[in-house]
Amino acid sequence: VAFLVFDNGGIHVEVEKEIEFEIVSRPTPQAVPDPDLRPKANLDFNGLIDRISQFPRDTSLAYQLGVRLVKAKNYERAEQVLRDLLRRENCFEVLEALAICVYHLGRWSECAHFSRQALMLGEGFRDQRFELLKFLGNSLIQLRDLDGAQEAYEKAFLLFPGSDILQVNFGTLWIQRDDWHQATECFRHALFLNDHSPTAWVGLALCHQVRGDLELAFANVERALDEDPCNETAISLIMDWARDQKQFGSLRSCRSRPG
To answer: Which own/partner contact pairs does 156-162 have at CB distance under 8 Å and 24+ positions apart?
Structure first.
């Protein structure tokens, strides 16, 4: 039975072992429609700290600091700043940034909570809502709420039906439901939208492995490595399968086979 584990914006699908699927997410909000939160100046980090010390009640400066910390992947400190800001500004942008923080900290219930709270406000631009729905779906999969995850992904699909990343997410959801046929179709559709997606190639490889076509699975993983030579999941899979088959050289000849 496959199982997803999320780590630092990635999905790990375990099918007798841990497989990583990348979830591409934007680490910061794209826009701040609330005029009170709009940046007043394009300050460097030290300049921003100085301004905050001078104007501690300025919520726009606190928001900028939280976003900068998210970009720096200092999620613990960013969470502290944003939680303090949330007590003063219960708005979409702060809830969105908090959802991103706790997602990367692996706190799925809190990510689902903040994502839902932000979405309930009915604000934000379309791409912001799309990202939040993906975060929500990913967190709900981790919480084993597959129906909730599917609902979130379907809402995201209505916003951006042409997203290959979302099709990869759908594919991993169908793996959770043990529907490998649907998973295969989702990964193939992701590749139709973007045939340079290493995560989709790895997902398709898993589906071929389950059907017993190890050579085709191997070829798919090698294609993933063509797109991303440093993809740790693909490297791990290809080495494990090569050891199992004891035919590393002969399997390499299959790399040109299509998926």
So the answer is: 156/130, 159/126, 159/127, 159/129, 159/130, 159/133, 160/126, 160/127, 160/130, 162/193
Let me know how many helices (H) and strands (E) the chain has, helices first.
Answer: 13, 3
Q: What three-state secondary structure class fits 212?
A: coil
DSSP string covering 28-66 = S-S---SGGGS-SS---HHHHHHHHHH-TT-HHHHHHHH
114-149 pLDDT, tens digit per residue, is 999 999 997 778 999 999 999 999 999 999 999 999
- 35 burial level (CB within 10 Å; 0-12, 13-18, 19+): exposed
Give the C-alpha separation, 96 to 98, whole Å: 5
pLDDT in tens, 36-72: 444 444 557 777 777 777 777 888 888 988 899 999 9
What letters, b where the CB count within 10 A reaches 16 and e where it falls short, cover 78-101? bbebbeebbeebebbbbbbbbbbb
Distance between CA atoms of 149 and 115, rounded to whole angstroms?
12
How many residues belong to the chain?
A: 259
Residue 22, phi then psi, degrees to nearest 5:
-75, 135
Contact (CB, 8 A) for 115 and 149: no
The structure tokens listed for 214 are 């190890």
Which tokens is 174 given? Answer: 């169908």
Let me know the angle formed at the C-alpha of 158 by 153 and 163, rounded to the nearest 5 degrees: 70
Name the phi and psi angles at 58, rounded to 5: -80, 105
